[in-house]
Specification:
2 domains; single chain; alpha/beta; two-stranded antiparallel sheet; transmembrane helix; membrane; about 600 residues; elongated; six-stranded mixed β-sheet; Acyl_transf_3_dom
């Protein structure tokens, strides 16, 4: 296929859309469509190449896949080695397991499957993962496995019909799946949901290439409208737009129009030196920009980037992209297969060794787990299993603690007080949301769906335990969001037996940054000031709930003086992230509130004896 400078320029545009979006999605809310532009171009070019070789009876599966690997893998492997090496000195020990999985999945081009599973509830967020952007390369490589099979084994006259049917069927599949699951994240990373975007390029290649050539005036109108639609999509779509699916057809068709329309000034512009040069570097630019952004966000635990950070990212991205393009991409394009294979094997082995052994080196900076992760009461968390805590020998009423991860983190609090004041309790808790029926699925944001589904599976077990206990204690990060949580707690209160009591906690405050990322130790090192936030609206709602039901009691954990210096207490870390107490913090809370809590709780205990 003849090389086209204007396609290089369009690649440059695609990168800029993605880059601006990644720097700050408020600047260009729909800039993620730049990835879809890349997909259309890939589908168009690869289809053109395969069809051309098929017509000459010169197509070889081996040569096709080898050329794709030689084009993509050398620079990609170079990136993985450098970023993985840096990561073990930036990432916290608690996040290494997720980091290692990301490296392995990226190397094997299956990272889209890993990231489709969403965030770990307690681990690093996806927006901090330096390998998140590799999902698109994984989808592209997976598509390359399928495309030659479609084109080679289907007769030319049937090919457009088959492509159209696949586009319609897979687009419908993506839309129906997103509607039924209320979750766009899984489909966002899904190969089947993304295949239509590649196939738009394929369809235009086999049906319209060289045929959309009218007068230059009409060509200018078509390309101007198409470019306008593409740019408007980048401004008008956002992360809440149902995507991919039918919505993705808008920017992808607009992109395809730019690829097949004859002589026009839009193509002339994209063929100029600067757009073309950005397009030539676009692959390496795409590879390097995201890890730099992600590492800065991870280290600072802050989404917003300062002006100096943006400038630094732009300069270093350009520099590393030029190095990668000049010394890796171009070098291996000219080298024979044995050289490429030796580099690939040796580089992959090196990456594997780094991934396995660098965490051992980084252990010298390891912070004890009790400060960095939930370590107490985890056997009764997210599992159909209860645990006993407190004074097991005491003859106290049967007490149950339920709730979300905030209930998990006050188990040490209640255990400390229970041991010293002779009561015991059992627990069953879950991530993200309390495990009770009645919480409405359509109120849950897409990123919380997997936690909701897991909690709903645990709900019968939780409700069974509620019926078997006299005092039920509930702690949640919030009782008012989603609204059906509050309604569900009210329903429980109404349905309690006459001898059952319900205790609801106003939970502890949150802080604005992850203190472990900021402090990098459990002893206070940082001078940064943290913003401590108490959910006053939640507290008011719980006070109202307790006042309106004779069998509901309210206790406020947030009133403790230990939070005056949060996230530290006596210069020791008491939070393991921005919203969860660690064991030290929970026990410190117990020591401060023991007398106050027992003056509140003793009458409830005595009433049940």
């Amino acid at each position: 296929m003849q090389f086209r400078n204007d396609i290089q320029g369009i690649r440059g545009l695609a990168f800029l859309l993605v880059f601006i979006f990644h720097l700050n999605y408020n600047w260009l809310p729909g800039g993620f469509i730049g990835v879809d532009v890349f997909f259309v171009i890939s589908g168009f070019l690869m289809t053109s190449i395969i069809v051309g070789e098929k017509e000459k009876s010169d197509f070889s599966f081996y040569n096709f896949y080898l050329k794709r690997l030689k084009r993509i893998f050398p620079a990609y492997l170079f990136l993985l080695i450098i970023i993985a090496s840096a990561g073990f000195f930036i990432y916290l020990d608690r996040d290494f397991w997720g980091f290692q999985k990301s490296v392995g999945a990226s190397l094997l081009f299956v990272s889209n499957l890993l990231f489709a599973r969403g965030d770990s509830y307690f681990g690093a967020r996806l927006e901090d993962n330096p390998f998140l952007h590799t999902w698109s390369l994984a989808v592209e490589m997976q598509f390359y496995l399928l495309l030659p099979l479609i084109i080679i084994f289907i007769r030319k006259r049937f090919l457009p019909i088959v492509i159209i049917l696949l586009i319609v069927a897979l687009t419908a599949y993506a839309n129906i799946s997103m509607y039924l699951s209320h979750d766009t994240s899984i489909k966002y990373f899904s190969l089947p949901a993304r295949i239509p975007e590649f196939l738009i390029g394929s369809l235009y290649s086999v049906t319209l290439k060289g045929k959309m050539n009218f007068s230059r005036t009409n060509n200018n109108i078509i390309t101007t409208l198409s470019l306008g639609i593409l740019i408007l999509s980048a401004f008008l779509m956002d992360k809440n737009t149902p995507f991919p699916g039918a919505t993705a057809l808008i920017p992808t068709i607009a992109t395809a129009n730019l690829l097949v329309t004859g002589s026009n000034f839009v193509s002339d512009f994209f063929a100029k030196k600067i757009p073309r040069y950005i397009g030539e570097l676009s692959y390496s630019l795409y590879l390097w920009h995201w890890p730099l952004i992600a590492y800065i966000r991870y280290y600072n635990d802050e989404y917003s980037l300062s002006t100096p950070e943006v400038i630094f990212i732009c300069i270093l991205t350009g520099l590393m992209a030029w190095v990668s393009y000049r010394f890796i991409e171009n070098y291996f394009r000219k080298k024979n297969s044995p050289v490429f294979l030796r580099y690939s094997v040796s580089g992959s082995v090196l990456l594997g060794l780094l991934t396995l052994f660098l965490p051992k080196v980084a252990e010298i900076y390891k912070i004890p787990d009790i400060y960095t992760s939930p370590t107490f009461g985890v056997d009764s968390h997210n599992q159909k299993k209860t645990e006993f805590f407190g004074d097991r020998a005491a003859k106290s009423p049967k007490i149950l603690l339920i709730g979300d991860s905030h209930a998990l983190t006050i188990k040490p609090f209640l255990n400390y007080i229970g041991e010293r004041n002779h009561f015991s309790f059992t627990t069953v808790t879950s991530d993200g949301i309390i495990a009770l029926h009645g919480i409405k699925r359509d109120e849950i944001p897409s990123y919380g769906m997997k936690f909701y589904d897991a909690a709903q599976q645990l709900a019968p077990f939780t409700e069974q335990n509620i019926s078997q206990n006299k005092i039920i204690m509930i702690n949640c990060s919030t009782f008012i969001s989603p609204p059906s949580v509050y309604e569900t707690i009210e329903k429980i209160a109404r349905n309690l037996k006459h001898d059952q009591k319900l205790v609801v906690f106003e939970t502890y405050p949150t802080v604005d940054r992850d203190p472990i990322k900021i402090n990098r130790d459990y002893i206070k090192r940082t001078s940064r000031k943290f913003v401590v936030t108490i959910n006053k609206e939640n507290r008011s709602a719980l006070q109202k709930l307790a006042a309106s039901h004779h069998n509901i009691y309210f206790y406020d954990l947030s009133k403790s003086k230990v939070f005056e210096t949060a996230p530290f207490y006596k210069d020791t870390l008491m939070y393991y992230n921005r919203s969860h107490l660690n064991v030290y913090g929970s026990v410190s809370l117990a020591k401060d509130l023991e007398k106050d809590f027992m003056s509140f709780f003793t009458p409830i205990l005595n009433e049940e004896k």
